[in-house]
Design goal:
6-stranded antiparallel β-sheet, binds adenosine-5'-diphosphate, alpha+beta, 602 residues, 6-stranded mixed β-sheet, 27% strand, Beta-Lactamase, 17 helices, binds magnesium ion, rod-shaped, 5 domains
């Protein structure tokens, strides 16, 4: 052993270990502090091959270290202690080659103990000169370093939050110009206040080697811009101290996208909620979703009244079968879109008509049907009204023809019949023929009213006087059937612009019908009422009422339920009111009576 070695031995008594190893890796000498560092007596290690004591994963490192000429660079590996566990060891640059002792190449190495976790080379420090000064220490580390430096993910090492090393991506993530700008600063300078507590907890967990999961936090860059970050962390050792190794993932764009998604979802929801059409989802024939319009459509107070209930509970019976078929076709995937019309009962007891578009959707992963319902009740009534007015005009045209063609011969027949009049006792058929002729004349005169609507003469008329005239006319007939006609005029003295004769005809028709409806006798009440815009007249009877199917058809020409009826009275009535730009409505409860309400503009 040469002098250098003796000197080294003296130094070994301090912290570092010295060893002399042959080029084949045999330990020729080890300093006496091997006992305190590794647990081996000096003699125990001498003669052994160093590779026997090296962690298998690190052997390639050591091998390249010993069989290579680049011995100037430090090498770090795990050395097995006598207790079989490993200790991290770093060979320092105090490497001496000694060819003098023997033919075999010998190396004197200085071993420095590291902590028992992978270390971070001190040249990764933030200070620039240390960085450049030691950069050339090892090609391997240089590679690792440059890899870390150019890693596209921001990475940093901190001790209790204090930056020790930051890579280039991290530097740019924080908007700094260079790593030095971050030297001495703490993560807490950059993480928003609200995340400080959680960050502190994470650091202390890291130091206790507890698991730390993904953490989301908002960072504030040097330029004040906010960065949404996802942070992954691991514990490490830096310069012999417990430290935090952190990988930061910038999730700002993901968050932004999430916000956009959330916004568009909200917008979409608003769209559905505020749609005029009803949008509903049906799963197993039950409502499982319904928008605001749907709640209104069904006159429900709130969603729970509908949700979870069978759609057939609301649907009119005649439409159920067809709707079920449509739903089944959609559910089985046989059809992509179906249109169907149906009618529903509402909570208000009314019937509504809808047209629906059905498309497939899912409900908790199971096939379901989305139904868009449009209320077409109004359209349907308009259609019916159009149909009725169409019938009216046809009837009107017919009436004009009939009136002319029949009236003239009828006048002749009636005249001659009167001339031929024999004594009543001798021919009983005569009176029958005569009364039938009268009936034909009655029908004709009613038809003629229709045929000549253009002849109407408008004048200002007191409505009270007009009604009283009609009542006088019909009172005798009513009294015979023990019916009294009462009047209540709130709008007495009011004058309206109308065709007197036509309007009289209206009340004659209504009162006649009311009389017919009360074979057992009773009361008819006629009341008038006026506000700024319109005059309202009601004709109310306590008769047998009108069943819904009759109510629907009332006003159709020749529709009658009476044995001797003409079925023209109401048609004419409706027609006259229409000519006066008014409206007429019938309300009836079978068994209780009927009210006809006429509104005329003032
Ligand atoms: P007609 O009186 O000749 O039958 P209308 O057009 O006047 O023809 O009336 C048509 C039908 O409407 C009547 O047959 C009757 O069934 C019904 N109707 C009209 N008014 C009433 C009423 N006040 N009460 C009960 N049914 C009525
Ligand atoms: Mg009638």
């Amino acid at each position: 052993m040469n002098q250098k070695l003796v000197k080294s031995q003296a130094a070994a008594e301090k912290a570092d270990l010295y060893a002399v190893v042959s080029s084949s890796g045999k330990i020729l000498f080890i300093s006496s502090n091997s006992k305190q560092h590794f647990g081996y007596e000096q003699g125990e290690l001498v003669g052994k091959y160093i590779k026997e004591m090296i962690h298998p994963e690190d052997s390639f490192l050591v091998e390249s270290y010993f069989y290579n000429d680049h011995h100037l660079y430090p090498c770090t590996f795990r050395f097995q202690k006598k207790t079989y566990d490993y200790v991290w060891v770093e060979t320092s640059a105090d490497f001496i080659e000694n060819r003098l002792v023997s033919e075999e190449r010998e190396v004197v190495i200085k071993l420095k103990l590291c902590s028992n976790v992978p270390y971070w080379p001190s040249f990764l420090a933030l200070s620039k000169d240390r960085y450049t000064e030691k950069k050339q220490e090892s090609p391997l580390k240089e590679e690792a370093l440059s890899m870390l430096e150019t890693l596209p993910s921001p990475v940093f090492i901190a001790i209790n939050g204090q930056f020790q090393y930051v890579n280039q991506s991290m530097v740019s993530l924080l908007g700094a110009a260079s790593p030095e700008e971050l030297a001495g600063r703490s993560v807490f300078d950059f993480i928003l206040e609200e995340y400080h507590d959680i960050t502190r907890t994470c650091i202390s967990r890291l130091h206790n080697n507890s698991f730390v999961g993904l953490v989301e936090q908002t960072w504030k860059r040097l330029d004040g811009k906010l960065v949404e970050a996802e942070v992954k962390s691991a514990s490490t050792v830096y310069n012999g101290q417990k430290a935090e190794l952190i990988v930061v993932i910038d999730i700002s764009s993901r968050k932004k996208f999430q916000k956009i998604l959330q916004k568009s979802r909200e917008r979409y929801q608003k769209l559905i909620q505020n749609s005029i059409d009803t949008i509903a989802v049906i799963h197993q024939y039950n409502w499982v979703f319904m928008n605001e319009s749907g709640v209104n459509l069904f006159h429900a107070n709130d969603y729970p009244e509908l949700l979870g209930k069978s759609i057939f509970y609301f649907m009119m019976e005649e439409d159920q079968q067809q709707t079920k078929c449509v739903l089944d076709r959609i559910l089985s995937g046989k059809s992509e879109v179906e249109e169907i019309k149906q009618s529903w009962k509402t909570f208000a007891g009314t019937v509504i008509y809808t047209e629906a578009v059905c498309i497939p959707t899912t409900f908790f992963g199971e096939p379901a049907v989305q139904m868009i319902l449009r209320d077409i009740s109004d359209r349907k009534t308009t259609e019916e009204l159009m149909l009725r007015s169409e019938k009216l005009s046809v009837a009107g045209q017919l009436a004009a023809g009939i009136a002319h063609e029949i009236r003239n011969p009828l006048t002749a027949i009636k005249g001659f019949l009167q001339l031929m009049q024999p004594p009543k006792e001798t021919n009983p058929y005569y009176s029958i023929v005569f009364s039938e002729l009268n009936r034909i004349e009655l029908i004709l005169s009613e038809l003629l009213l229709l045929a000549k609507p253009q002849e109407s003469v408008f004048s200002r008329t007191s409505i009270k006087t007009l009604i009283q005239d009609v009542v006088t006319l019909l009172e005798t007939q009513a009294n015979l059937r023990s019916i009294s006609i009462l009047q209540n005029h709130e709008a007495s003295g009011l004058q309206i612009n109308c065709d007197q004769n036509q309007l009289k005809q209206v009340f004659i028709n209504l009162i006649k019908n009311a009389i017919d409806a009360m074979p057992e006798g009773g009361q008819i009440l006629i009341s008038t009422n006026a506000d700024r815009e319109k005059l309202t007249i009601q004709v109310r009877d306590k008769g047998k009422g009108i069943p819904p199917e009759v109510l629907k058809r009332m006003g159709e020409p020749f529709f009658t339920t009476k044995e001797k009826g003409t079925g023209l009275g109401l048609m004419i009535t409706y027609n006259i009111i229409e000519n006066h730009n008014g409206s007429i409505q019938a309300e009836s409860k079978p068994g209780e009576g009927t009210v006809f309400t006429i509104a005329l503009p003032l």
